[in-house]
Specification:
This is HPr family phosphocarrier protein. It comes from Paenibacillus antri. InterPro entries: HPr-like, HPr-like_sf. With 79 residues, this protein is α+β, with helices and mostly antiparallel strands. The chain has one domain: 2-Layer Sandwich (Histidine-containing Protein, Chain: A), CATH 3.30.1340.10. Helices cover 44% and strands 23% of the residues. Strand 1 and strand 2 form a beta hairpin. Helix 1 packs antiparallel against helix 3.
C-alpha cells in the first residue's frame, strides 16, 4: 500500500472519529467501521466503489465530511 493510501486511511478514520454517528462502508458483503484504522487497511486496498452508510444524531454533517474526505483522496463512494 502506498503512502498516499496510508494518509487517506488515517485521514478518513480521524474525520469519522469526530462524529457520534455510526459510519460504515459496504463493499460486496463486507461492512467496515470507518472509525477502525485496521478495518480500513484491510479493505481500502483497491479502487473499488464503496457504499457509505451513516446513522446517528449528526449523520448529515458526518456524511458530508466523509464524502469530502474520500473525494480529497480520490476514492469513490456512493452515499
Amino acid at each position: 500500500m502506498t503512502n498516499n493510501k496510508n494518509a487517506a486511511i488515517v485521514d478518513i478514520a480521524q474525520t469519522a472519529g469526530k462524529f457520534k454517528s455510526s459510519i460504515v462502508l459496504q463493499f460486496d458483503n463486507k461492512y467496515i467501521d470507518v472509525k477502525s484504522i485496521l478495518g480500513l487497511f484491510t479493505t481500502l486496498v483497491s479502487d473499488n466503489d464503496y457504499e457509505l452508510h451513516v446513522h446517528g444524531p449528526d449523520e448529515e454533517d458526518a456524511k458530508k465530511a466523509m464524502i469530502e474526505v474520500f473525494a480529497k483522496h480520490g476514492l469513490s463512494i456512493k452515499a
